[in-house]
């Protein structure tokens, strides 16, 4: 009888110890220290940045294993609207200043975190075996039936293309030929697949494809400066981690990656 009572006491003690261990583990999973170790950042970025930022994600997470970078790629205008509507975003990386200006005017950026980081160029491309174009006026030729550009209202590359074609006096003539893409990568795809005769994209997009040929590079005085600004969004759930990632993007290691993909660096 005494042995049975001792055995029961031992079982109760073991059960209590297991319960305490489980409670401790549960507490640890909700503790501030653990939460800090499992930080995730949502970065809304222009789709033209996708190859470079994808490589940077691997580099950054390799040296910051407790931070997970989640990208939301798209047209800068569409991403800006999402942020205006309250989307949970930590960092915004735009392909134009217009969208960043709108967020700043709406007081949605963390003060003094906005800065211009990258530049790009605008190029005319065609399929590898497509028409050989030596000047933009040739786009009015009858043999050029479809030309792809980004939707000017939401896609910065499309806005720059419209500015350029307007300055060249070609915009009214070319409008019937235009095929508008939801983002610059869709424009690139239209050209790659031969669904259009030519397209206007960034030099970085053209560099990423072996299915197109760059025919012309637009003079920089034909359109607004192509500048990529980034900033931390005011409703960021992880402002400290966001600041660290933005600082990394502006650092020498990330700049090497950006230049590898054809971007220029703002001086």
Q: Runs with pLDDT <50, length 5+?
A: 17-24
Rg, nearest Å: 26 Å
Summed up, the domain count is 2
Largest sheet, strands/sense/barrel: 6 strands, mixed
**Helical segment tally?**
11
CATH topology of the largest domain: D-Maltodextrin-Binding Protein, domain 2
Q: Which CATH class of the largest domain is shown?
A: Alpha Beta
Within CATH, the superfamily of the largest domain carries the name Periplasmic binding protein-like II
What class would the helix/strand composition place it in? alpha/beta
Strand order of the largest sheet: 2-1-3-10-4-11
Q: Give the overall shape, derived from the CA principal axes.
A: elongated
Q: Overall pLDDT, averaged?
A: 90
Walk me through this protein's architecture.
This protein has 267 residues and is an alpha/beta fold. It has two domains: 122 residues, 3-Layer(aba) Sandwich (D-Maltodextrin-Binding Protein, domain 2), CATH 3.40.190.10; 101 residues, Periplasmic binding protein-like II (D-Maltodextrin-Binding Protein, domain 2, 3-Layer(aba) Sandwich), CATH 3.40.190.10. 44% of the residues lie in helices and 21% in strands. The protein contains eleven helices and eleven strands. Strands 2-1-3-10-4-11 form a six-stranded mixed β-sheet. A five-stranded mixed β-sheet has the order 7-6-8-5-9, with helices on both faces. The longest helix has 29 residues. About 3% of the residues have low confidence.
